[in-house]
Every structure is written in structure tokens, then in C-alpha cells.
Amino acid sequence: MANISVNLIVNGKAVTQECPANSTLVDLLRDQLQLTGTHVGCDTSQCGSCTVHFNGRAVKACTVLAGQAEGADVVTIEGIGSRESLHPMQSAFRECHGLQCGFCTPGMIMAGIDLVNRGDASDEASIRSGLEGNICRCTGYHNIVKAVASAAVEMGVKEEAEG
Amino acid sequence: MYQFNYHQPQTIEEARSLYNKSEDGLYLAGGHTLIPSLRQRLSSPSDVIDLSSIAALTGIERQGGVLRIGALTTHDSVATSEAVLGHCSALATLASGIGDAQVRNRGTIGGSIANNDPAADYPAAILGLNATVHTDQRDIQGDNFFSGMFETSLWAGEMVVGISFPSVTAASYVKFPNPASRYATVGVMVARIDDGVRVAITGAASCVFRASAMEDALSSKLSENSLDNVAIDPDTLMSDIHASAEYRAHLCGVMARKAVAGL
What we know:
The complex is a heterodimer.
Chain A: E1 3-10, E2 13-20, H1 25-32, E3 51-54, E4 57-60, E5 73-75, H2 88-95, H3 105-117, H4 124-130, H5 142-162
Helix pairs in contact in A: 2-5, 3-5
Chain B: E1 5-7, H1 12-21, E2 25-28, H2 34-39, E3 47-50, E4 60-63, E5 66-70, H3 75-80, H4 82-87, H5 89-96, H6 101-104, H7 109-115, H8 122-128, E6 132-135, E7 139-141, E8 146-148, E9 151-152, E10 160-165, E11 170-177, E12 184-193, E13 196-202, E14 209-210, H9 212-220, H10 245-261
Parallel strand pairs in B: 1-3, 2-3
Antiparallel strand pairs in B: 4-5, 5-10, 6-7, 6-10, 8-9, 11-12, 12-13, 13-14
């Protein structure tokens, strides 16, 4: 099995990375680029912990081959905010205590942002259905849903101010 | 992860040539069944030929009353397409209920039907909406495409390039999803096309099938009550940890009635 070379953009920076042909995108992010904020829970596309944005849309990075990311624009949890200036979704998870152990949180946040960007976070039912691909095993979903709803308001306000 | 050679051809011809040169090649579409299968060693190809860079395989077009969807079009694109909604909203509804948001952003219609999972949603659309499957070598009538559990009439190395859906008078798809996977425990597509009624059921048996007794009953009168005395024989259905054959048979009737009510 030969190595492959993948060219992609990760968190706004162009990257060229050699990796084994059978690497997944999450292997490339975590093992090669040391972006360990993206977690691997089930590794079989059930749990959503590995959710990243791939050309602007939420995908499960454990079920994308590294080679499939050729030319793609990938954003991970490390790329959405900073310690000094959290993304509104991150702030909302903190404010609403939308986490306990925190393992699922990066995936929840990336899925939540996509949900809000698509206009699918208008009420509790649509948020719950939009987060079907993300599993949390400790807090229950109440505060997570609350956080996404709160961020949706914040992100909407911000967009209007910018627009 | 299982080891394989990876290729990313830019054209259908190049993909075909890579397949012919490989010892035991396999085409990769969205990968949402194949990649987990590779990891679990349920699939062990020598070469994975990724079709995602082939532009000709993606897109949705509606022309002369026919909706054509490229094989690599994602479930989300189908679910949100104006062309699909204008042609047959039941098809958009079906696509919007597959898996979860992340899966719908990657999974493809061509990959789904070529895999022919007995609980997948799209096979019910292909049969129920009388679609035609286009491959790189021929056109296959939907009725002749699915041949058994994870089996289709595709030849070795034959590639699905697109699917055409004729115009329908009315169609409705209702499923009882497995609460964890969102696969169909039972899913029923009911469609009125010209003067005929088609009923396709997925999830219930080892392969999607047309319920001819339901079609006959609905052809004489297209109403829920027409199904009152029509039963699906549990002996022809699957039993597993999710549902017994008897329960699936019951669900076939319930989902079919709901689908008719939704026409």
C-alpha cells in the first residue's frame, strides 16, 4: 500500500500532507496535523464526536478517507474561535453548561454551527432532530439543545449586524 | 483500517480503466457504508477507486417531465433541491429522513442503490417511482435492478452514473425508522403514475419489493380503506432483534395506509 499526498485547506491554511492510503480524515487531522480537538468516539459514523466542516458542511471525519479531502476546505474545532474570543456556539455551551465530560462537545459544537448556518435551528424540535447524528453519554441533551438555541439567536444577531 | 490502494480518477473512462487493471477493485461513492465496512473487514478490495472527483456524476436536472439525478449527488442535495421538490416532493422527504445531517452531507443516491441494503430508503423510491438506473454501459429498469440482499443486477465493474425519475401524479413515502440508525424498519412508497398505482416496501424483507396485492387493491380505489383486507405474509419477511416478521407485516399495513393518506 503506497502513501498518498493530500492537498487541502485546514482552518484557513493550505496544507500538503503525506499519509497512508487507508488514512481517514480524522487520522490525518489528529495524528499528522496534531489537531486533537476533533475526537474519535465510535469510529463508525454513529456518534458524531469527529464532526468537522468539510466545504462548509458538517461531516463525520472518521468516515471520510484522507484522499477524499483533496482540494477540500476543512474547519475543525480549533479553527472557529480563540481562547480570547470564543465562537458564539462555544460561549453558549459554556453559558448553558452544555457539557459534562466534554468528549462529545467538539462534535456537538461543529454540528450545531452547521445547523444554525442552514437555518435549521428555529425551535427545540428542529435542533433535536438536527443533532441526531451526535451522541452524548453524560449530560443528557437538555443543556446542549439550550446552548444551540441560545447561539442561534446570538449568531443571527451577529449576522444582521454584519449584513 | 484494512489496507488498500487508493485512486481518485477524474473521468468515468479513467475509473473504468483503473477497475480493469485492479486485482479486486471497488468503486467508492460517499463512503458511508463502504468506509465502515473496510474498517470492520466486511469488505476487502485490493483497490478503492474514489469517484468523487468525477464532475459528470453529480447534479440534478429536470427536463421534459423527467428528473435526472447524478449518482454522486448527496442525500442533502436531493432533500433540498427545488427541482426535486417541484418534481416529486416525496423523493425529497425520503432523502431528508436518511441517517442524520452529517450522513446526508456525504452519502449518495448511487452509492445507496448499488449497495442495496435491505433497510435503505432509496430502493423504495427506485421501485415505487418507476425509475430507470443509468450505468456507464446501459439503462436498467428499476423493476429489474434489485435482485436480493445487498445484490443488484450490476455487472462486475459496472458503475451507476445516474437515475431518472418519470413524472408522477402523486407520491408519498412514510417509514418507521429504527430509532438509533434511522434505517427503515419498514418504509413504504406509494405512487400514482398515469393510471397505475405502485407500492414499494423496503426494510421489511431481505430486499425491497413491490406489494402487488396492495397495488391491485389501490388501483380499484385509491383510499386507505382499500387496504383493510390486504395483508403481507410474514413468512416472506425478516425477523431480527429490531422487529419480528409479524410486527414488520403489521407495520407494512400501517405505513402503507399513512402513505396513502399523505397522497
